[in-house]
Write a structure and sequence with these properties.
With 375 residues, this protein is mainly alpha-helical. The chain contains 12 helices and 2 strands, in the order H-H-H-H-H-H-H-H-H-E-E-H-H-H. Strands 1-2 form a two-stranded antiparallel sheet. A hairpin with a 2-residue loop joins strand 1 (288-291) and strand 2 (294-300). 31% of the residues are buried.
Length: 375
């Protein structure tokens, strides 16, 4: 019995030694394969072309309503929250893009205003000279064309500018309905801090709506405040103000989403419209506002702005996901800042740029007495 016991011990020892040996050999082979790059490729999920419905599986459904639950939308890969500290470095590029775009927008608006004033003066003298020729020309025919011209001329300057914005939103809305454009629309017309494309969607998503109700509500509010905001800022400054508001509100959304880890796509003009609303409320705090669905209720613009800022602040702190409260709050804060400080800081300091442009125009070919200057 003793020898049997010892022999079994010996066989067990030999078995474990050989098992350990084969285990070491197996681990060595696996490590060698990994170093040489012989890893098993992970099968990527196939993205099927189809309807926009599966976007409801996104990690966070944003306020701007990237896609409604009942809508149709192409598949979007879900992004896990970033945990690496270098994730904040992804915000550097959007930050510089926002600063650069805002500067270019207001600089272009200043030059646009200069050219507009110059053309108005020139057209005034041309109209005086050609006034007598208009009486000799035959009148344009076409009842429909005449009605369109009358309707267009009846609009205020602000409504005319906003009509162009509404038309751009309508074109993008129609593009969402083209199946072959779904992937491009998601890439460039939805803003997501987890996406590889960060900068261009900050602007393009401002013109992007997937839901009819979402676009109709936003454009109605923008139309309602168009005359007031353009009378305050002027059309050139308003366009720069609106486009910059869309970019800056998206930047604020990027920062909040990255800080909280609640990453997800957003789209819509709500952030820029909140900027317009805040600017009008600051300029005219005693103006009476109402809700289209509740016409019996009315309140002052100042109280409305306080309520909106409080609600969006609560949404950011509590993590509400039905709306992109961060973009709304960022837009409202930018509107308040611009009316109180930004107008003085940015727009009223445009004279050096306009002077440089004027010098380039007058010294250029055909630019005056010194036009086509000597070498």
């Amino acid at each position: 019995m003793f020898f049997r016991f010892s022999s079994s011990n010996l066989s067990l020892k030999l078995y474990f030694r050989f098992s350990n040996y084969y285990d070491l050999v197996y681990r060595f082979i696996i490590k060698t394969q990994q170093r040489c790059g012989f890893r098993k490729a992970v099968k990527k999920p196939e993205i099927k072309k189809g309807n926009v419905e599966q976007l409801s599986n996104l990690p966070a459904e944003s306020s701007e309503g990237l896609i409604h639950r009942r809508g149709a939308s192409p598949n979007v890969e879900s992004h896990a929250p970033y945990t690496h500290p270098r994730v904040l470095n992804r915000l550097v590029k959007p930050l510089f893009f926002s600063i650069g775009f805002t500067g270019c927008a207001f600089g272009t608006a200043a030059i646009w205003q200069y050219e507009s004033l110059k053309s108005r003066v020139q057209s005034y003298f041309n109209e005086v000279r050609a006034d007598w020729l208009e009486k000799l020309r035959p009148q344009k025919q076409g009842h429909i064309r005449k009605q369109i011209n009358q309707w267009w001329n009846s609009l205020s300057e602000g409504q005319q500018i906003v009509s162009g914005i509404i038309a751009a939103n309508a074109v993008v809305f129609c593009c969402w309905r083209v199946p072959s454009l779904q992937q491009s629309m998601i890439k460039y017309f939805t803003s997501n801090p987890a996406s590889k494309t960060l900068c261009s969607p900050m602007l393009l998503s401002t013109f992007s709506h997937y839901s009819v109700f979402h676009m109709a509500a936003n454009m109605y509010v923008l139309w309602s405040f168009s005359s007031s905001i353009v009378s305050i800022l002027g059309r050139e400054q308003f366009v720069a103000f609106y486009l910059s508001a869309g970019v800056i509100s998206t930047l604020f959304s990027y920062v909040c989403k990255t800080a909280t880890g609640r990453l997800g796509p957003s789209l819509g003009a709500s952030g820029a419209i909140m900027t317009v609303l805040a600017a009008v409320c600051i300029k005219m705090p005693e103006a009476k506002l109402g809700i289209i669905f509740l016409p019996m209720l009315s309140f002052t613009a100042g109280n409305a702005l306080k309520a909106i800022v409080a609600m969006d602040t609560a949404g950011v702190l509590l993590g509400w996901r039905f709306f992109d409260h961060a973009a709304h709050l960022g837009g409202a804060l930018f509107g308040i800042w611009y009316i109180m400080y930004g107008h003085e800081l940015i727009w009223k300091n445009r004279e050096p740029l306009v002077k440089i442009w004027h010098d380039l125009r007058t010294k250029g070919p055909g630019g005056g007495a010194n036009g086509g200057g000597s070498l």
